[in-house]
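Appendix B. Raw example, untouched.
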Amino acid sequence: MTGGNTSGKTLAGLRFAVLGAGRVGSSLAAWLAAAGAQPVRVASRSNGAAAALAAALGAPWVPAAELSSADADLLLLAVPEGSLAEVAARLALRPQAAVALHNAGALPASVLAPLGAAGVAIGGFHPLMAFPTPRTDPQEAAGIVFGIDGDARATALARRLAAAWEAEVVEVPEESRLLYHYAATLVAGSATTLLALAEEIAHAAGLSTKVAGGYRRLAASALEAASGVAAADAITGPVARGDSALVLAELAALDRAVPEAGVLAAALANETLRQIALRRALLPSQEVLRGQLRTPNRG
């Protein structure tokens, strides 16, 4: 494992077990260990990636069906959302840790209700970060926001973990979890989808593949420009300027090159105008553009 804790707030004395050795589970387990927490076991349905994680942590691997974590302070559940309820019910049949935290963004702590009924403090602990690969350097945790909910003991431990990693927490109540998670998918998954579409358009235009790197840097710089301000105030481009002639010309070119993307492009332009209108009055040219975007030919 790389890196180390630099916050001065360690997790020394905290014992943990982790169920799930995917990208998120491997990352959080590595961050826990780097901050001084002691891994007691790694569990999963198969021992492929889990065996490697267990070896890296210096902890034994056990089959998920046999996991008992009563000697741990924390049981970290990094399994797919669709299986959490079933996993919690199975785990509740054996002694488990004092606190169980799951990493599913869309689900509330109550998905672990069987563990709660067995005396375990339950909570959600969802990192607002993309994990295309395991991120084992604990320095990458600094500044991350974790969405948390659950019992008082569970959220207290979640806050302790975040503090040790110099991360932040935000309370996300049960009734807000679905919208919270959907907004996260817009920022991560949909942003990447838009980048893929930009690359497809460039290919359709016969451009060099080198332009893809330029689009990536452009996206990163746009997000950087939104740092510290309301995102709507950082929107740039012809829609934000109200240049209707250019917007409509580009949409027409897109209809010819990648017609399947036309409806999405018009919807994004409309949403850009709606977001701007939430902050300030639209320019006359932007009002005109909004009307043109809503014509039958433009959806």
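End of appendix B.
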